[in-house]
Specification:
Layout (H helix, E strand, L loop, with lengths): L1 H29 L2 H11 L7 H20 L4 H27 L14 H10 L10 H4 L11 H22 L3 H16 L2 H11 L7 H20 L4 H23 L1 H12 L2
Helix pairs in contact: 1-4, 1-10, 2-4, 3-4, 3-7, 3-8, 3-9, 8-11, 9-11, 10-11
């Protein structure tokens, strides 16, 4: 009887640990962006945070959702992808709002899709030499990609990507190499999450505006996530790219140390010290 109770208790504890780990995977992925969100909200300055971080995660998690239909992995990882996409749109909305508010001189708006009135105006003006084309025909230029001035453009862009990805996946769902490729692209893209922030820090020669708490939580979360992938025997793509992600986190932490003096000077200048 004692053996049966012990066995039952062990099974229950195992379930609780599993549920706790799954909950940590879902919430833990979002948690690092809370301090970054609060910092942008408090300082009303979004220049230190790269929106390409949001693009990277939106693409990675959309691909991961598509991968689930071809190769069913654990449900908590699917839920994490959905929650992460929602979180990234919240971050984008805040950054776009803050940047609009901080404009001293109102810049020309950049949007992802052409509006009907813009198209009609272009048709009326196309024979006039020297006249400027309407705004939307410039927005498809790579120079302005993911640098639009309205939140709707980011939604439209990801909607187009999701619909095209879903259509291709539906057609090739029975082709195993294609499904494996989606899985690899999903986790590899997520593994490169730190790359846009590394580039932003290198360009600014400072980490001012970037939340150190966010990066520390990134690192801890990625270490936990990679260990979770290995223990739960997730597809190989997951844990290999998880290790790459941890490496990029360490590079960002190195930049914090490398640019410490310039970051402190930029922070004093912003405060007016």
């Amino acid at each position: 009887m004692d053996w049966i109770i012990s066995d039952e208790l062990g099974l229950t504890v195992g379930h609780l640990v599993g549920w706790g780990a799954a909950g940590a995977m879902i919430i833990g992925g979002v948690a690092p962006y809370i301090p970054q969100y609060r910092q942008i909200k408090r300082t009303q300055d979004a220049e230190g945070f790269s929106l390409y971080v949001c693009l990277t995660l939106l693409v990675a998690n959309t691909l991961r959702i598509l991968f689930w239909f071809g190769k069913r992995y654990e449900l908590p990882l699917l839920i994490q992808s959905i929650v992460m996409n929602i979180t990234m749109f919240v971050m984008i909305h805040l950054c776009v709002t803050v940047r609009k508010k901080n404009q001293i001189i109102r810049a020309r708006e950049r949007i992802f899709t052409a509006q009907p009135d813009d198209t009609a105006r272009w048709l009326d003006q196309r024979s006039s030499i020297g006249r400027e084309k309407p705004r939307s025909f410039y927005d498809m230029d790579r120079k302005y990609f993911w640098a639009w001035t309205d939140f709707q453009s980011y939604l439209d862009c990801m909607l187009v990507f999701s619909v095209l990805g879903a259509a291709i996946t539906y057609l090739l769902i029975e082709f195993s190499p294609f499904v494996e490729l989606i899985g690899f692209l999903a986790v590899f893209t997520e593994a490169m999450l730190g790359a846009p922030q590394i580039a932003k820090n290198h360009q600014n020669k400072s980490t001012e505006g970037m939340s150190l708490s966010m990066v520390i939580m990134w690192t801890c979360g990625d270490i936990f996530k990679t260990a979770y992938f290995v223990i739960r025997e997730a597809p190989t793509q997951f844990w290999v790219c998880g290790g790459l992600q941890v490496s990029l986190d360490i590079i960002i932490l190195f930049q914090v140390w490398l640019y410490h003096d310039k970051t402190a000077a930029a922070r004093r200048l912003r405060r007016g010290d």
